Amino acid sequence: SSNEHKLNFKKSKEACLSYIQDALLQKQWKRAAEFLTCYVESLEKDYSREHIGPSEMIWRIGTEILWHHSQSSMKEFNCFMEQMKTLGVKRYLKVCLEHVFHLLCNGQIDEAYQNLSLAESWRFGEQTVIQDKEMKLIQAYRGLLDYYSWSKQKNILLEHGEDGFSDLAVEQEMHGYFRKAAVNLKEIIKIPGVWDVFVKCYVDLLEFYGDHNEARQVLNEYAYNSKFPANPNAHVYLYQFLKRQGESKKSLISALKILHDIVPSHELMIDFNTMLQKSKKRKKRRLGLEVIFTALDYAGWKENAKAWSCLAGQVKQIVISEKHLDWIKQEWNSRKDWWPAFHFSRYLAKRNWQENKNLSYEKALVAGLLLGKDCKYFKYVSHQGCKAQLKRFRMLRKFVNKHNLVYLKISG
Questions:
Q1: Do 46 and 79 form a contact (C-beta atoms < 8 A)?
Q2: Cα 255 from Cα 257, distance rounded (Å)
Q3: Which PANTHER family does the UniProt entry name for this protein (predicted)?
Q4: pLDDT at 180 > cutoff 80
């Protein structure tokens, strides 16, 4: 009967998809391809009313298989993608974008640009309006490739210098790419979202032609507009731009303060700490100590010699002046229960000594002042340093012994 046929078809379809899923999970691409072929051949009904219709299923699974299959070629992939574009207008632009990504991954820049141009000229009734966001992405990526061409021409011009008519032709071509890239890149970054690569390229174009005010406005909008999602990179780009422009330390500190609030473990916290330490304001120097302590709370910073050098220098300065020991005490109180095992174990002392003696020196200084002269880390490193007859380690031991009372004050 008709109902029985539909039921059997549904069961066979679900079983086939289950086999495909199993093959994909086990990275058995040949087996997955065979089952997908069976799945395509067995489709007899239109299931487009379902949330994910067969055409989208075939597109997504087929793309994954062809990308990983050892015997697939770019020619087969291109053929498959062209077929997928005709299966459903609702997904036409998405398929085009994915096709472009694969072409770019294979270094086929010209083919990718051609596909973007064709997709941009696509029109299909109301679908054109519905897929407005996808169309803007198509245009944005075309702008990105125009920027790539502009960058190539710029490098040619910079390498050859001013050399008559040949350079004039290159410069004119370069300006043509600039105009096309700028229009499309400017449009996409108006839409709230994460557009890092587009923003960087657009700012590069503006800076090259000396439009620094526009570049500043773009970066400020990207970093501070509440409609855009929180994005650490937006503040990184703004900071780097301000630094290139030779802006005041106040402006640089302001940009990094927000980055610190979002990502306290960012690599730029070294720069932030350095600027704060050079400030004449006590409040900023206090913040600098907090910044470097917080950065070292993260595992990725455990063996960062520069960070330990910053902390050691600041702690040493405070200890010698005997001012603001309360700053150290406040930071240490929340860490004294876990930093000894996290940073200052005997095992780490041995490893750090073997791998990086500068790192072990800075850490030993901090460990000795925070945990006293009986700290395992300090004892091991200072002993090894003195044993190797290294003068700086003898001075280290002498300094920590002299200021051992500081440990008692900090520990309470």
A1: no
A2: 6
A3: TATA BOX-BINDING PROTEIN ASSOCIATED FACTOR RNA POLYMERASE I SUBUNIT A, TATA BOX-BINDING PROTEIN-ASSOCIATED FACTOR RNA POLYMERASE I SUBUNIT A
A4: yes
User: What is the pLDDT at residue 305?
Assistant: 96
Between CA 59 and CA 174 the distance in angstroms is: 38
Phi, psi of 231 (to 5 degrees): -145, 105
Tens-digit pLDDT profile for residues 123-140: 776 666 677 888 899 999
User: How far are the Cα atoms of 297, 344, 388 from residue 265, in angstroms, in the given order?
Assistant: 8, 20, 35
Dihedrals phi, psi of 128, to nearest 5 degrees? -60, -40
**Phi, psi (deg, nearest 5) at residue 316:** -60, -40
Instruction: Let me know how many helices (H) and strands (E) the chain has, helices first.
Output: 23, 0
In this structure, what are the phi and psi dihedrals at residue 77, rounded to the nearest 5 degrees?
-65, -45
d(CA 156, CA 280): 47
Sign of CA pseudo-dihedral 387, 390, 393, 395: positive
In this predicted model, what pLDDT tens digit does every residue of 262-271 receive, in sequence order?
A: 999 999 999 9
H or E stretch at 273: helix 269-277
Q: Is the pLDDT of residue 165 over 50?
A: no
Helix extents (H) in 106-131: 109-120, 127-130
Residue 155 CA from chain centroid, whole number: 26
